[in-house]
Amino acid sequence: MDRSGAIKNSVAHMPFTRVARDSAYELILTFVLLFGVATIVRWVIGPSPISRTIPEIHAQLWIVGGAVALLLSGLILSPLGRVSGAHTNPAISLAMWRFGVFPGKAVIPYSIAQLLGSILGVIAARGVWGHIVADPPVVYAALQPAQGWSIWELFAIEGLGMAVIVFLLGSALAVQRLAPFVPWIVGALVGMGIALLGTASGGSLNPARQFGPALASGQLRFLWVYLLAPMVGAAFAAWLWGRIQNRRKVLTHRLCGPVR
User: Fold this and answer.
1) What beta strand segments (E) does 73-131 contain?
2) What is the structure's pLDDT at 2?
3) Full 3-state SS string of 65-89
4) Residue 179 DSSP code
5) Do 238 and 64 contact (CB within 8 A), yes or no?
6) Residue 247's pLDDT is what?
7) What are phi and psi of 203, to 5 degrees?
8) What is the pTM of this model?
9) Alpha carbon of 195 to those of 30, 171, 198: distances in Å?
10) Peptide bond into 258 cis (omega under 30)
């Protein structure tokens, strides 16, 4: 059996107990991610020595993006992340299924766990940091598009951003020598998305990133766009990657690369 056949066979026979365990790990990882995001926003954009020293929003977004990039890379390389894959993003789980390295039956459990982890993460941040997390300008780190943006402009930029990440992710995970660098590639791409799109679409690029903050803050107007657009972008990118790179196969669904 060739490598791609072995991967597909392993994916098809992933037992339910492993799906349940890995979904629980995804809940924990996404909890930490959203707690971290809310904490970073609280200290960089909310009232703090940092925001008083660096009041310019674009500079603040670069700081937030860099901090989130390091946090995300660390979660991918953590013991739990090496087991579950550290998707922390329903769009990534969907893309890995479409790449053929992740079981379809695990996409929904992973997604539910990630969304639940998002809610618990921002609730925990509110409990630790107090009312500042709920008050402007933090507001649970919930995102809003720039003034005047239409729903379809928001959908297009969030979907396109996720499509770029998934396409580059698939390309890197298909090359053995590049796979170990994927945690840093993913972190850098997400961090740049935050810095470059923060004053436009918000730079969510992850349904779980917006889900908990939107529910906690009550800012639900654009929530369906932030949930759906990355999923559409991820599915499209996985399809396009398969059409262009039909002779190469993604090696693993784990963002840390193949585990030996």
Assistant:
1) none
2) 45
3) HHHHHHHHHHHHHCHHHHHHCCCCC
4) G
5) no
6) 77
7) 70, 45
8) 0.94
9) 21, 23, 6
10) no
37: nearest Cα among 141, 111, 110: 141
Q: Which helix (H) or strand (E) holds 233?
A: helix 223-244
In sign, the C-alpha dihedral spanning 111, 115, 117, 118 is: positive
Measured CA to CA, the distance from residue 159 to residue 136 in angstroms comes to 27
Tokens 């698939």 found at: 170
Distance CA 259, CA 101 (A): 14
- Is the CB of residue 110 less than 8 Å from the CB of residue 207? no
Alpha-carbon distance of 121 to 115, in angstroms, equals 10
* Confidence class for position 203, pLDDT limits 50, 70, 90: very high
Q: Find, among 190, 199, 217, the residue nearest to 122 by Cα.
A: 217
Residue type, 196: L
d(CA 253, CA 249): 11
Largest Cα separation within the chain, whole Å, is 61
| Interval 239-254: pLDDT, tens | 999 999 877 899 999 9
